[in-house]
């Protein structure tokens, strides 16, 4: 899951980012309104942790911008302003939750997991493609009932593709989604190729009937038995 923290208290932002990265999330940060607008215009996020009071503008205006295209991005308002009016305004604009400062980091992680669960329609959090079953919250993958040992980035790559079976995925888009928006500073995609090679080998060795195929000059595509 990729998270954007929009928070003008840099110390708090850094503490939140460090804790969430430790939990396995991909985290990016913006300390003001205009920086957040810039990031939201370029990158996509699964969850936004949004302060209301920001330099250069209001977090509620940002929330309106996020909700205007009717995206599935989860938004949790995090603010020291704990008035009923602010909470109601945020929820009416489409926020998924509201967490007042100060808060414990464990509660923050719990709120993120909670909104992610609520965004699932059927209540089943596992992903299934062919004979491969992934349990994202537990961090486990099974092929024909046998657990597969994957490294953290391998797991993230597979999860990304299992959300998009049959879709062409540009290698640059994949790299940005897994490694974050600082990936544009990289000289090449050798790090991605290495992770992908290992993941594809593990899937093959364990007898997966899905395959992540390279598409020359573009990127990759996850194929399932019916479309091979």
Q: What structural keywords apply?
A:
2 domains, 8 helices, single chain, 14 strands, five-stranded parallel β-sheet
Name given to the CATH architecture of the largest domain = 3-Layer(aba) Sandwich
Which regions have little confidence, pLDDT < 50, spanning 5+ residues? none
What is the CA–CA distance across the termini? 28 Å
Taken together, the total number of domains comes to 2
Residues in β-strands, percent: 15-25%
SSE order: EHEHEEEHEHEHEEEEHEHHEE
Shape: elongated
Q: What share of residues is helical?
A: 25-40%
* Rg from Cα: 19 Å
Quaternary arrangement of the chains shown? single chain
The biggest beta sheet reads: 5 strands, parallel
Structural class: alpha/beta
Q: How many individual helices?
A: 8
CATH superfamily of the largest domain: Response regulator
The strands making up the biggest β-sheet line up spatially as 2-1-3-6-7
Tally the beta strands.
Answer: 14
CATH fold category name of the largest domain? Rossmann fold
The CATH top-level class label of the largest domain: Alpha Beta
Q: Which whole number gives the mean pLDDT?
A: 86
């Amino acid at each position: 899951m990729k998270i954007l923290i929009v928070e003008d208290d840099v110390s708090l932002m850094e503490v939140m980012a460090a804790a969430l990265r430790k939990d396995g999330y991909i985290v990016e940060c913006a300390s003001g309104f205009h920086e957040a607008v810039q990031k939201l215009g370029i990158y996509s996020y699964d969850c936004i942790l949004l302060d209301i009071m920001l330099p250069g503008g209001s977090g509620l205006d940002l929330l309106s911008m996020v909700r205007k295209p009717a995206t599935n991005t989860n938004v949790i308002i995090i603010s020291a302003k704990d008035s009923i009016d602010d909470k109601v305004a945020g929820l009416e604009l489409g926020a998924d939750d509201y967490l007042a400062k100060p808060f414990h980091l464990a509660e923050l992680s719990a709120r993120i997991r909670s909104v992610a669960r609520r965004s699932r329609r059927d209540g089943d959090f596992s992903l299934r493609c062919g004979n491969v079953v992934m349990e994202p919250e537990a961090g486990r993958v099974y092929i024909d009932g046998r657990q597969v040992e994957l490294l953290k980035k391998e797991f993230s790559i597979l999860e990304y593709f299992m959300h998009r079976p049959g879709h062409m995925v540009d290698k640059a888009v994949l790299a940005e989604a897994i490694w974050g928006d600082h990936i544009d500073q990289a000289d090449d995609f050798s790090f991605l190729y290495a992770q992908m090679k290992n993941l594809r080998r593990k899937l093959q060795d364990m007898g997966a009937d899905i395959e992540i195929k390279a598409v020359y000059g573009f990127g990759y595509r996850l194929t399932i038995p019916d479309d091979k």
